[in-house]
């Protein structure tokens, strides 16, 4: 979960969102409903966590390739 100001991590945020491992909030009011969804759904938490971990694994070390 992250906010809308991701200029320093724009590509990473896009990758996480695409994989289902990240959620970008546009307004602070969204935080409660998103947290509630995650708290009430162990399956959703599990899937998002696995997707985020896999995204990180797939892209680990890419900053050194530049």
3D architecture notes:
With about 70 residues, the protein is mostly helical. It has one domain (about 5-65). The chain has three helices and no strands. It has helices spanning about 10-20, 30-40, 40-60. It is flat, with a radius of gyration of 13 Å. It starts with 9 loop residues before the first helix and ends in a 7-residue tail after the last helix.
Summarize the structure.
With about 70 residues, this protein is an all-alpha fold.
Q: Write the element-wise H/E pattern from the N-terminal end onward.
A: HHH
Query: What is the strand content?
Result: under 5%
Shape: flat
Give the helix/strand class: mainly alpha
Query: How many separate structural domains?
Result: 1
Topology of this structure?
Blueprint: H1 10-19, H2 30-40, H3 42-59
Question: Key features?
Answer:
59% helix; single chain; flat; mainly alpha; 66 residues
């Amino acid at each position: 979960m992250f906010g809308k100001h991701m200029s320093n991590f724009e590509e990473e945020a896009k990758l996480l969102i695409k994989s289902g491992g990240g959620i970008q909030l546009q307004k602070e009011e969204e935080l409660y409903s998103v947290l509630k969804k995650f708290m009430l759904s162990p399956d959703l938490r599990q899937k998002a966590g696995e997707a985020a971990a896999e995204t990180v694994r797939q892209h680990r070390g890419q900053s050194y390739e530049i």
